[in-house]
Structure formats: C-alpha cells, structure tokens
Design a protein that fits this description.
The chain is built from four helices and nine strands. The protein is of the alpha+beta class and 219 residues long. Bound molecules: ligand 3IX. The site of ligand 3IX has 21 residues, from helix 3, strand 6, strand 9 and helix 4. It catalyses: (9Z)-octadecenoyl-CoA + H2O = (9Z)-octadecenoate + CoA + H(+); (5Z,8Z,11Z,14Z)-eicosatetraenoyl-CoA + H2O = (5Z,8Z,11Z,14Z)-eicosatetraenoate + CoA + H(+); dodecanoyl-CoA + H2O = dodecanoate + CoA + H(+); decanoyl-CoA + H2O = decanoate + CoA + H(+).
C-alpha cells in the first residue's frame, strides 16, 4: 500500500499546478455535461470524437502508474486531488467545495445533468457519496480520522438537480471510532439525513499521522 505519500512542494509551484489542474478538470467536466446534453447530428459527434481522441492521446503521453493517491506536504497540507467527490484534478468529482467552521463542515456543490438518477433528480448514490465524504472529513477534522465502517442514509424527499448544500458534524468519538452525522439540503429543505461510523484502521493505530504516512509510504 503506497497510496499515501509525503511530497514537499514550494508555494509557487503549488499555485501553478493548482491552476493547471483546476483548468483541465473544469474543461473535462464541461465536456461531460455537453456530452450528456448534446443534440448535434452524427457528423458533429464524429468530429467531436476525433478531437477528444486527440486530447486523450496528448494527456496519455505522460501518466502516473496508478491513481493520484493522497499526498501530504508542509506547504500544501493534504492533497487528495484524485478524490471522486472533492478531487481538484478529478473531473468525475462534481466537485464539492468544503468549508470548515469549528467542528461543522459545509459542502457546496452544483449537481448538473451528469448526476441524474430519477428524471430531473439527483442519483441517490451520488448523495450517499457526498455525505460519506463530508462525514468522513468531519471525523478527520475532529482528530479521529477513519475508514467508513457503516453509513446509514435516509432519503426524506427527492433532491432536485442543481445547487445542494451538505452539512456534516462530529457527534461523538469512542476510542478509535468516530460517529458523524450530516444532511443534504436544497431550496426544498433537508432532503437526506445520514449518520456513520468511521474507524481508524489497525495499521494506523498508535501512530502519529506522519508516522502512519511513512509506514504506508514505504509499504
Ligand atoms: C494517513 C494516515 C492517517 C490514518 C488515516 C487512515 C484512514 C483514514 C482515511 C481517510 C480519512 C480522511 C477523510 C475522510 C474522507 C472521506 C471519506 C471517504 C471514506 C471512504 O470512502 S472509506 C472507503 C470505504 N470503507 C472501507 O473500505 C472500509 C473497509 N473496512 C475496513 O477497512 C475495516 O473493516 C475497518 C477499518 C472499518 C474496521 O476494521 P478493523 O480491523 O479496524 O476492526 P476491528 O475489528 O479492530 O474493530 C474496531 C471497532 O470497530 C467496530 N467495527 C468494525 N467494523 C465496523 C463496521 N463496518 N461498522 C461499524 N463498526 C465496525 C468493531 O465492532 C470494533 O468496535 P469495538 O471496539 O467497540 O468492539
């Protein structure tokens, strides 16, 4: 397991690669939305596919051997840029933008046509994933990070595609277990409620975060 790593990086370089990654991911996200909603004819689709194939070949010239992983540094903190919900360089991530106010986390996200489940409504799995991320971050933010052990999700009313707010907070901790809760809200009010248990895995117990990263980084 070597997906956690330490990578020192200067502030200038961080600013540069952040802008580049956000730009590219944003362009690809726009492409996905355009693909879902296009109504152009076959010839235009064929021409677009040629452009897409050329862009893919260009990006494939130099690739990571696997996923981005999670990288830590003194200047940049934690970079989970490949994360499927919040990853800065991942166009699959809507992305959710998270802000922290003490132990409360607020995630804002605009869910477009690419996140549809029932007609005009957000796919329930996407909502569960956003809650998983926010509740997990609430546990981590409270100092007891962990893998999701159990996540309970109650869909109270349909969530219409569009802007959505995710709230999450730590309920309590019991040793290596964190219990977090959260909601999804829209203009219609709370649409989803969740609670979850996040468990610090065995390999990380009794280690500082830095030691844990070194252990897995060498593993
Ligand atoms: C980087 C270094 C720092 C270390 C951080 C490590 C991990 C943190 C990772 C990220 C956190 C950061 C941000 C969060 C952001 C996003 C959230 C997304 C998270 C995910 O997307 S994550 C993917 C889905 N997730 C999995 O892929 C988990 C697969 N699974 C396992 O990795 C193990 O299964 C594990 C670790 C869950 C437990 O394994 P284990 O060996 O540690 O368990 P053990 O037997 O020691 O039990 C200890 C106590 O937990 C209770 N317990 C056990 N299992 C439970 C369960 N499922 N539900 C409720 N309670 C459970 C027992 O009943 C006992 O309780 P008690 O002590 O009271 O009896």
């Amino acid at each position: 397991m070597s997906e956690y790593s330490i990578e020192e990086i200067t502030a200038d370089h961080l600013a540069h690669i952040t802008a580049v990654a956000q730009g590219l991911a944003g362009d690809v996200r726009a492409l996905v939305d355009a693909t879902v909603r296009t109504q152009v004819g076959d010839d235009d689709v064929a021409a677009a596919r040629e452009h897409i194939a050329a862009a893919t070949a260009l990006l494939r010239r130099e690739q990571l051997p696997g996923a981005f992983g999670i990288r830590f540094s003194a200047t940049a903190g934690k970079r989970n840029w490949g994360n499927a919900m919040v990853g800065l360089r991942n166009p699959v991530a809507p992305p959710m933008h998270m802000s922290y106010d003490g132990e409360k986390i607020t995630g804002t996200v605009d869910l477009g046509a690419a996140y549809e489940g029932p007609a005009g409504l957000v796919h329930g799995g996407i909502l569960a994933a956003l809650l998983d991320q926010a509740l997990g971050s609430a546990a981590e933010n409270a100092g007891v990070p962990g893998m999701t052990g159990t996540l309970n999700v109650r869909y109270r009313q349909a969530t219409v595609l569009g802007p959505v707010t995710v709230s999450a907070w730590l309920d309590r901790t019991e040793g290596i277990k964190s219990f977090a809760k959260g909601t999804v809200s829209t203009a219609d009010g709370v649409t989803v409620e969740a609670d979850g248990v996040f468990i610090l895995p065995r390999w990380a117990r009794g280690q500082s975060q830095e030691d844990a990263v070194r252990t897995v980084g060498e593993g």
